[in-house]
Design goal:
2 copies of one chain form a homodimer. Chain A is of the alpha+beta class. Helix content of chain A is 33%, strand content 41%. Chain A has a single domain (3-84), classed as Mth169, Chain: A. A 3-stranded antiparallel β-sheet of chain A has the order 2-1-3. Strand 2 (36-50) of chain A pairs antiparallel with strand 2 (36-50) of chain B, so a sheet runs across the interface.
């Protein structure tokens, strides 16, 4: 069975407070990077899954995001890329 | 001055222990997702920066990664994308 490497972005939902992003922005300002207007921090996950086809791999990863990897109340996720491992 | 949205991936360096990735893989197995062979967890940062040109924006973000956003001993980073905000 082919193996796929699926990349996922999990990001705070728009309109939800993003304290980690605010902390990063403030720290960058303190370090002199005044050009930073905004910062958001999410997670970048890379999953290696065995699946018969690319569509099955992405469907499986979506199920994993729904069940475990993303908080459905506060976070959105998107499949950022799929490639043969 | 134009505003750019720069996306950055910060990922654990290859060969370095990735306990968070291992925890995710084990949790997915427990939930019945046995097709997952490996999982890696990094950070997905989106920075909005004011810069005269795209090259200046990415150069600035690289400096931020070197100084604050990535741990130079255990992590690698890559600019995942740049677009006008």
């Amino acid at each position: 069975m082919p193996r796929f490497r699926v990349a996922v972005h999990v990001i705070p939902r728009k309109g939800i407070l993003d304290p980690q992003g605010k902390a990063v922005r403030d720290a960058l300002h303190t370090l002199g990077f005044g050009s930073v207007v905004d910062a958001h921090v999410g997670r970048h996950l890379v999953l290696e899954v065995d699946a018969p086809a690319e569509a099955d791999a992405t469907a499986g990863v979506r199920a994993m995001c729904d069940k475990l990897l993303a908080n459905p109340v506060t976070e959105d996720y998107e499949i950022a890329g799929v490639q043969l491992a």
